[in-house]
UniProtKB/TrEMBL annotation:
The keyword Protein biosynthesis does not apply. This is Alpha/beta fold hydrolase. It comes from the Bacteria. Gene3D superfamilies: alpha/beta hydrolase. SUPFAM superfamilies: alpha/beta-Hydrolases. It holds the Pfam family Hydrolase_4. Residues 29-285 form the Serine aminopeptidase S33 domain.
């Protein structure tokens, strides 16, 4: 744990996996935000945005998802989903939400914030439980909604490698190549070199904590059926991304998601930030992004 990082708690799911999470508790919060992080990272570096949410009266629960952070040891190692398979990713998100709601006590609105791979998991969670949520923010959506089933089939062709970890820089190489004059393989994350260096130095991020083909296959197996059931989502959604994010096809994938949500009758707002890359909360315009998110969440207070 870094000097400014929030302490880690854990809860054990029904498969016996100890799920690590952090809970930020301001005095008398009016709402709760449950965070699902992206691939090859973890929930700990959410400190800055969690403190901003706390200042706005929102508690935050951020888990280390299976195969990531401090949960990876219990689920079988980096990039391994472990017992329960893909559905357990949703179960653990719901479990941490329940733990946080119980710790806070009382009744208050709960939101999901999903980033990147976490936004794909978050979309599946919305289809499963949106009637009990006040809203959701999906940030950096990294897949073509209409092609998610085909993507799953393509990943299935990698079945022979399903249990083998692959360095994140290999998986993300096409994103890196989209950034001219790049300094590192991860400049596509942010225009702020200090934030890129922070990511590279984190032992739970990037190549130090790689994914597996099997992990991606399980996540997109959740997303494919969810993409066909958007009309079951019963809460408002904010979709945000940078228009220079190669993971989101320079804004095309988030735009497609927002259009599909609106067509399904879901109240949805879309915000694309000019010049911004993948990690909006760690971008050079992060103060603008943070203010926009807090203002949107505050609409449902």
């Amino acid at each position: 744990m870094t000097p400014h990082e929030h302490p880690v708690q854990s809860c054990r799911d029904r498969h016996g996996v100890a799920v690590a999470y952090r809970l930020w508790r301001p005095a008398d919060p009016w709402g709760l935000v449950v965070v699902a992080h992206g691939a090859s990272e973890r929930g700990g570096p959410d400190e800055r945005f969690a403190q901003a949410r706390a200042g706005a009266g929102l508690a935050t629960a951020a888990l280390d998802q299976r195969g990531h952070g401090r949960t990876a040891e219990a689920s079988g190692g980096p990039g391994i989903v472990g017992p329960g398979g893909g559905p357990a990713l949703l179960e653990d998100l719901a479990l941490v939400r329940a733990e946080a709601e119980a710790a806070l006590g009382g009744e208050r609105p709960t939101f999901i914030f999903g980033h990147s791979l976490g936004s794909v998991i978050g979309l599946a969670a919305l289809v499963a439980e949106s009637r009990t949520l006040a809203g959701a923010v999906l940030c950096g959506f990294p897949v073509d909604l209409h092609g998610v089933a085909a993507l799953g089939e393509a990943l299935a062709e990698q079945a022979g490698q399903a249990g083998r970890a692959q360095p994140a820089s290999d998986l993300f190489a096409p994103y890196a190549e989209a950034v001219p004059d790049r300094r590192t393989p991860y400049d596509w994350l942010s225009r702020d070199p200090a934030e890129v260096d922070r990511y590279l130095a984190d032992p739970f991020c990037g190549d130090q904590h790689p994914l597996t083909w099997g992990y991606l296959l399980k996540v997109f197996a959740l997303a494919a059926p969810a993409a066909k059931r958007l009309d079951t989502i019963a809460c408002p959604v904010l979709v945000i991304a940078g228009d220079q994010d190669p993971a989101g096809a320079m804004g095309d994938y988030p735009r497609t998601l927002a259009e599909a949500l609106v067509a399904a009758g879901v109240p949805c707002d879309l915000r694309l930030y000019p010049g911004a890359r993948h990690e909006l909360l760690n971008e050079t315009n992060r103060d603008e992004v943070t203010a926009d998110i807090l203002a949107w969440l505050g609409r449902w207070r």
